[in-house]
Amino acid sequence: MFNNILARMGQGLSVGQQSFPYNIGNPVSTYLGKSIWTLHSGTKKDDGSPVSIFSFDKTKNQSKIDVAKNGFKRAKTIRHPNFLTYLDGIEMDSNIYIVTEPIQPLDDLIDDIKKYDNAISWGIYQIAKALSFLNNNNNLAHGNINLTTIFVTKAGDWKLGSLDLVSDPKDLYSVLKNHHDLIPVKYKPPEILKGLWSHLQESPSYGIDSWMLGCLLYECYSGPMSKSEDVRDLDNIPKQLHQQYQKCFSSKTESRLNPQKFLESSYFQNIFVETCVFLENITLKDNFEKESFYKKLDSNIEKLPANICKFKIIPHLLTAFEFGPINLKILGIILKLSSNLTPEEYSTKIIPSILKWFASDDRALRINLLENLEHYIQHLSSDLINNQIFQHVVNGFNDNPTLKEMTVKSMILFAPKLTEKTLTQLLKYFAALQKDPLPGIRTNTTICLGRITEYLSDDLKKKVLIPAFSTALKDSFVPHANAGISAFLFTINYYNAEQIATRIIPELSQCLINPDRSIRNLALQSIQKFLTKLEKMIETMESPPQSQLNSNNSSTEGSLNNSTGSDGVLSNSIGWAMNYTKKLVGNEQSSNNNSKNSSPSTTYNNSTTTSPINNNTFKSTNSNTTSKSSFQVSSSSSTSKSNNNGWEEDDEFDVPPVKSKPTNNNSKNSSKNKVHNSDDDNDDDDDDEEEKPRYTTKKEDLPKMVTKPSTTTGTTSKPAKGGLVLKKPETIKPNTLVVDDNGWDNNDDFEIPPPTSSKKQSTSILPTSTTSKKSVNKIATEGWEDWSD
Description:
By secondary structure, this protein is mainly α. The chain is built from 30 helices and 8 strands. The protein is elongated.
């Protein structure tokens, strides 16, 4: 019979434990022996959320079952923000369980809390509010206030627990009177020590708790008490607290400190307490009060503990920001505080709000987001930025000047997390922004491009950098031109020798004649650095393979031997010139023999005639002169087709190809004399005076190489045997500039165009005027002309 009863009890206990929806973890070792309850960490079975579980073993503490049951009842019935939050509880045959929010005993954390100024005052304020509610509103006494019966949440709030002795002190059969042995002796007021319970019936309900509140203040500032007389030491008690502290230990219970009046003390007038109190009542405050509070909070945020910022201030601010009017001060504070959150906490608490804010049309909100980007960019993943945020950010490129400026600057922080596809899209916006009417936008765009170069692919660097920075050099706004030169220097390691020699140095050279001294000086320094780098790169260039050199030498030597009959002593670099010279000399000799009996006349292209050139006007001194002259004729003929500007370095010496076969027996001498006319020395200064007027034509009036009419476009006139025919000369007008697309023509060394006039522009980097609004699609299609397609 008895065995059946035990079996049923065990079966019922098993069923009760299975129905308990919480997992009971290990006990908190520091709390063991300090209470009739055992404190455990635990989790909820449904979602794994953390909780704290108080467990009372009936079998081991049968004498205190009434106390445990009283505590269980008070925990369920007393609901106040400053008391432990009751979540669940169950009474079984052998155990009583009380489930609360996750907490830690104050006794374990008091040393850490002391490190922050006024942190203790915030805890005392909360305990005083709890006692005021219990004593004044409910006429109950706690009866056991000390460091072991107060608990701290993860948000830094102090919560009053251990409600086992809560009762009416005027009740002669109260739990407090029957079980006061659970109170440590050092905390007992004189009435309990002396057993003056009848005196307590006439005392206010806060008489017992006020004495214990004074003991709590002592231990918070001076450390653990060893005996009740220790409370007379005021050395570590704050001075503004002395009066209230001494009043707690008054010999008359009715003269002791009322917790309600204690809340009005100047002791609680500090930034820590004011901040937490304001946040708890923020929904009741008007806009003016909120604005004043946010300004004060922003300047004192470093004085608050991290756990309070994380679990108390941020949740309150998020609620106020989402459900109240938009206040940009709140956003800045939230982003600063949230930088200390873990990735998991940030992804659940802050990121959803950030995505919502970026999609907002409120300009002030978006500007504030970009200004505080450095505080939260590290918590945003690359996928999140490229897929959900960037599409909203680029709208700022087409907005008012202030938002456009902030959007450009923010790209420095966004660039490391952008994909190549997104960077390509960004560079198209930059190309359009370099043509923005506001000079500050153009300047900051160039600076930003230089800063994000390291994140561009090699292909994008090759296509974008030189055209973009060259565009900046041509800007009349001095800071933009300087930014372009500085950008070239900043990215000097990304260019090869060919780019430096053929594109960058020529572009920088144009800045050497800029009217502004700062641009000239910076350009000169930049060119020197690029030349130094180019010199080092040239030294490391590899020569062609030896096999290729041998093959070229063999081919050239064989050609020379076959054409001239020489023994291969001549260098291969002038072999082709010697070959052509011998052929030309042979043609001239044959022409002399055939023209002895012909009439002396010279025919010029386009029916233009001049006085005949005397056969003896110039004389060849040696065969080397003939070779040299023939070399020049060949070179001129080979280049006349490709260059039509008539003003290359040797154009004044070039001789046009022969149009038709001459009939003058002086054609040979005419050819030679025309060739010798290209010599710059003074070998013929002693010629007859009558021949000098024929050659008084100025250098710039020399015949210009021209192409044939359109009917014979693409063909080159062949020289007739035995003479040269000149084309009609064209006079080059002074100050004529041949302009091409890149601003670097062959004659730029001789003709410098005057500076173009432009309207005076503002020098402010951050423009304040508005600009015309373009569609985003239009901006996206514009770009630097050699890469945007």
